[in-house]
Amino acid sequence: MTQDIPRTHSLDVSDFNPSEMYFLLRDSIVPRPIAWVSTISRTGATNIAPFSFFNVCCPSPPVMGFSCGPRGDNHQDGTRREKDTLINIRDNGQFVVNLSPENLMDEMVASAADLPHGDSEFDFAHIQQVPSTRVKPPRVALTPVAFECERFLIVELNTDRALVLGRVVVGADLGVAGHGCS
Asked: What is the pLDDT of residues 89-104, one digit of tens each?
């Protein structure tokens, strides 16, 4: 008995501009976890932003990674500038990956706002923060799991996009049902 094999299409990435490639990659990898990354600036300003290109990279040492693109991510108009998240991680080497529960979806979306440099998305989106255990950036108070990370490596992918890898130093399971940290 022969099973029908679905027809696939091969796509040459050189046929796509950067915006089209972003949507192709983003919309093909589903479900896709979102890293809700909190950082802190040299002056103590808190920052939080969602990143859709994220995953666990290694269990030993425990490493998580996310792709940090520019603010004003319009590939044509030249308004792109480095995000506070990347600036803060370069400056102090620490961040927290918070996992966003469904009941914080509105706050997570609001935290993606393109605010002026140094303005707090925690304040803008009314996100309650609590101190982390070992790193300076705060955690999201109502998230089920938060991973406190120290910079492991930043890989410059092009002139305005970097892959940020962080070694997990604390995995905080806040006891929300169904969300264990192993």
From this structure: 999 999 999 998 889 9
C-alpha distances out from residue 110 to 4, 33, 107, 130, 138, Å? 45, 17, 5, 19, 18
Give this prediction's pTM: 0.83
CB 96 within 8 Å of CB 146: yes
* CA-derived radius of gyration, the chain: 18
* 4-14 pLDDT per residue, tens: 887 877 888 88
Dig out the tokens for 126 from the structure.
């009314």
* pLDDT category of residue 72 using cuts at 50, 70 and 90: low
Identify the CA nearest to 50 among candidates 101, 7, 100, 5: 100
